[in-house]
User: Fold Sodium/calcium antiporter from Dinoroseobacter shibae.
Amino acid sequence: MFASLSSPVLLGIGLVATVVILVSGLRMTGLADRIADRTGLGEALIGGVLLGAATSVSGTVVSLTSALSGNASLAFSNGIGGIAAQTAFLAIADMLYRRANLEHAAAELANMFQCGILLLLLSVPFVAYSAPSVTIFAIHPASILLVVIYAIGVIATARLRKQPMWEPVDTSDTRPDTPEDEDDRSQPARGLILQFVLLMLIMGSAGWCIAQLAQVLITRYELSSSMVGALMTAVVTSFPELVTTLAAVRRGALQLAVGGIIGGNTFDILFLTLSDIGFRDGSVYHAIGRDDLLWLGVAAMMTAVLLLGLLYRERRGPGRIGAESATMLAIYAGGIAVQAF
Assistant:
C-alpha cells in the first residue's frame, strides 16, 4: 500500500502518525490519573496495568503486523527495543524532576515487584532462544509462559497493594499517592474508560501506519530490521510513554509515572507472544539474530539498575540526576553504539 509512495509523502505520514501517538498519550495520562482516583486502585497499579498496556497499543500493532509479514527480527526488536527506550525515558524524567531523585520520591512496593516480574519475563526469551525449536501450532511454549507469568504478576501486584508485607520509609522527599479530589471518587469512571478505549483505537491505527512505513524503509534502503525495530519504530511507538511520564511527573503523580513505564515494559513482553502467533514459519525466537539478543540484554540490564535504584533510594540535591538514571542512560547509549558500529 505504501510502497509506491515517495519518500516525502512517507515522511509526512510518519510525522502525522507520531503526532497522533503523542497527543493520544498525553490525554491518556490525565484520564488514567482520574480513573485511579475514582476506582481507588492507586496510581502504581493503574499506571502499571491500564496505562502501561494502553500506551503500548501502537507498538503491539507494529510487532504483530511485522510478524504477519514474515519479518521476525522487526517484530522482536520493536518490542524489546521499546522496553530499553522507555526505561531511558524514565531517566530523562528524573533529570527533569528538580525536587529530588525520582526513584526515591516515587517509593512504591508495587513498582519494585513489577520490576522483578519484568526481569523474569525478559529471561524467558533467552531460554527460548537456547532451547530446541519446539512449537505447538507454530507457537513456541515460551510464548504461552509469558502470558501466564504476566497474568500471575498482575494478580499478585493487586494483592500486594491491598496487603503489603513491608512499606518503604517515608522521607521529606517522598510523594505519596493521594487522590486529587476525594469527591470525584463518588462519580462513575465509565465515561473516562470509554474515552480511554477510543484513544487506544486511535493509537492502534497510528501504529499500523508506522509498521507499514518501517517495512517500506527496510526494503527501499536495505536497512537492518533489527536496527529499524529497536531504534526507529520502538522509539516512535514509545513516545506515549515519554509523554505520559513527563506529564505525570508534572502533575506530581510520581507513582503513575514510574508505574506506567514499568507496566508498559512488562506488557511489551507480550509483543513476543503476539509476534510468535503471527509468525507462521515456526518459532519467532529461532528466527531472530544476535542483534536482537543485544537489545534483550540491554533491556534486562537497564531494568536491573532501575530495580536497584528503587530499592536503594539514593537521596541527592535538587537538580542532580540520580546515579541509577545516569547508569541507565549509559547502558542505552552503549547499546546504540554497538548496534551502529
